UniProtKB/TrEMBL annotation:
This is Luciferase. It comes from Streptomyces caeruleatus. Gene3D superfamilies: Luciferase-like domain. PANTHER family: BLL6902 PROTEIN, LUCIFERASE-LIKE MONOOXYGENASE. It comes from the Bacteria. One of its GO terms (molecular function) is oxidoreductase activity, acting on paired donors, with incorporation or reduction of molecular oxygen. Residues 29-256 form the Luciferase-like domain. GO terms for cellular component: cytosol. It holds the Pfam family Bac_luciferase.
Length: 346
């Protein structure tokens, strides 16, 4: 079995936080309970995915504000906030506020690009500026500048009884160094590195070669590895720059026979999309890893990109029940993590 070049230092998990339209509070409460469980199990981080106009968490910053008051140690992240839906100045204020409430545990992950189904939502989202909005890297740069304390206005001082600042308030020390970019392409990896961000790489990449051209024989692990190396080669910290990998991992050590059957069926339905690039963007998906912790650890040790990272945020499947997540997280923390050389925090 190949051994990883970097011992696993940080173990996290990612959830979408699904809920029933008829009882949305219960779904959000389940997400908070899962984060609390993650802290008790010793996970280093918990991350929330982002969904708009769907039955998943639409406001992860608000949910993490609640989670910050129920936990004391675990890091809290977003993977990722699509900035096309956000005003960078307002988001900078929210992020700094939650970071302060959490005691400096927030790890905001963001991405750029137009909102999904933009033609159908632009009249509600940007009724007066839909055709003028910039959904490229400049939007992320604006957010970074504001979080890192660059002026938002040329006005500051006292006006009557009110005091005004030229920077976003509050400012949270250290938050600027905990900003993450979620990317699946060489261009994103390079941009994140050049701007001193951390890099989130998931179970989806663009099927591209070393120069960003379409790959004729795409291999997920090798493409992801090229992104990690491109990111670090452009980052001021070089090999010390932080990268977190987010594959879908489902250990079955303590699962019931019914749970194992459900997990295997789930992965089987998603396997066809992993065999070739999908859609005009030529997206390539990694296979879901289902099996005992020993089996999953062996597959990860053989994964070229995994061997380059020392942080992971394993993605939980989107459609399972609360008790399934409890079993999966417990097995990750007690079986898979130790098999990868990780030790629980606290």
């Amino acid at each position: 079995m190949p051994s990883p070049s970097r011992p696993l230092r940080k173990l996290g998990f990612l959830t979408i936080g699904l809920f029933d339209e008829a009882d949305p509070r219960r779904g959000h409460e389940s997400t908070l309970e899962i984060i609390e469980l993650g802290e008790r199990l010793g996970f280093d981080s918990a991350w929330l995915r982002h969904r708009h106009l769907q039955y998943g968490i639409s406001s992860p910053v608000a949910v993490l504000a609640a989670a910050s008051q129920r936990t004391s140690r675990i890091e809290l992240g977003t993977a990722v906030i699509p900035l096309g839906w956000e005003n960078p100045l307002r988001l900078a204020e929210d992020l700094a506020t939650v970071d302060l409430l959490s005691g400096g545990r927030l790890n905001p992950g963001v991405s750029v690009g137009p909102p999904m189904h933009y033609d159908r939502v632009k009249e509600a989202l940007y009724p007066d500026t839909a055709d003028a909005e910039d959904f490229g890297y400049e939007r992320a740069r604006r957010l970074l500048d504001l979080v890192r304390g660059k002026p938002a206005t040329d006005f500051s001082g006292v006006e009557g009884f009110e005091v005004f600042a030229d920077r976003v308030q509050p400012q949270s020390p250290g938050l600027g160094s905990r900003m993450w970019y979620g990317g699946g392409s060489l261009s994103s990896a390079r941009w994140a590195g050049e701007h001193g961000m951390n890099f989130l790489t998931s179970s989806v990449v663009k099927a591209e070669g070393p120069e960003g051209t379409a790959s004729t024989a795409p291999d997920f692990a090798e493409i992801q590895l090229s992104h990690i190396r491109a990111f670090r080669s452009h980052h001021p910290d070089g090999e010390r720059a932080r990268v977190s990998q987010g594959l879908v991992v489902i250990p079955t050590d303590s699962a019931t026979p019914e749970q194992r059957a459900k997990y295997e069926e789930y992965a089987a339905k998603r396997t066809p999309r992993t065999t070739s690039p999908q859609g005009p963007a030529r997206l390539l998906f990694a296979p879901d890893l289902v099996g005992t912790s020993a089996e999953i650890a062996e597959r990860l040790h053989a994964h070229a990109a995994f061997r380059e990272v020392d942080e992971v945020a394993f993605a939980l499947p989107f459609t399972f029940e609360h008790e399934d997540y409890v079993q999966i997280l417990t097995d990750i923390a007690t079986e898979l993590g130790p098999a990868l050389g990780w030790r629980p925090a606290g």
